[in-house]
Amino acid sequence: MSFSVNDLSNIIKLASISPNEAKTLIKLLTIDVLKSLGEDKYLILTASKELIASSETALKQDSKYWAQLEIKQNTLPTLSNLIKHPALLKNLQNLPLIFETKALHAILTHEKPLEKIKGKLLEHLALASSKDEFTQVSNLLLSLMQNTLTIPLQYQQYFGLFQMKKRYNKNTKRSQIDFYAALENLGPISGTIMLIEDEISVNLEVAFKATKLFLEENLNSFKYKTNIYIKENIVPLYNLHTNAILDINV
Tell me: the pLDDT tens digits for 125-173? Predict the structure, then answer.
């Protein structure tokens, strides 16, 4: 038995697992920090409105965070479990080159997925209409040159990020697929797909306990053995650079 990058297409379905249901159950939202008001108070922007909330964690102005928001009568809304969005999530959000989950599934099940995405990136690079667009598409190509696929992802009305990298594990002496996703209603997720004793095994790492519980309830029909863990400091596999000029050999 063997596995390939095609098996990762099944993991992509996690990105579109009932996102509205996830929003209700996990109670996770993205906030923009507009201004610090002092005394642990901040003016924030959610998807629906501006409001003032308190946070024991110091927040950085003009930054985005995943957060859980508690609202009680006669008290100031309180933010907790804050995790800052990776910078590349914001950098890629306005690119015209954004893939829906169906398109990403088609790429990953293609005979040569990396060559297919490289071709699309080169097409967009040639048609880039601004310096910023040229830089960000170039960064996606640079990521690919480092053997990491980085994809801006659209699922329903939400924007996210997906990364994957196939590598050789010296300890198991087998190849495995590492992946990372930044999802609006689930938060950051990292993981691996590997072959252990002729069985495909998936390990997922999530940042929030509520995300772990939600995924465990929604993975009953998933065909692979899946373990889900809570982990702090989940980071992208590859961070994009903001250099104005990149030396890319294509």
Answer: 988 888 888 988 998 999 998 889 998 988 878 888 999 898 888 887 7
Per-position DSSP letters for 79-110, written without gaps between them? EEEEEEPPHHHHHHTT-S--EEHHHHHHHHTS
Q: Return d(Cα 109, Cα 40) in angstroms, integer.
A: 48
Distance CA 179, CA 165 (A): 6
Q: Which domains, and CATH codes, for the chain?
A: 5-22+88-230 (no CATH), 27-85 (2.40.50.140)
Residue type, 208: F
Q: 158 and 184 in contact (C-beta within 8 Å)?
A: yes
Neighbours of 19 (CB within 10 A): 18
Residue 8, amino acid: L
Distances in Å between the Cα of 172 and the Cα atoms of 148, 167, 178, 229 are 21, 11, 14, 20
Cross-strand pairs, 199: 196
pTM of the model: 0.86
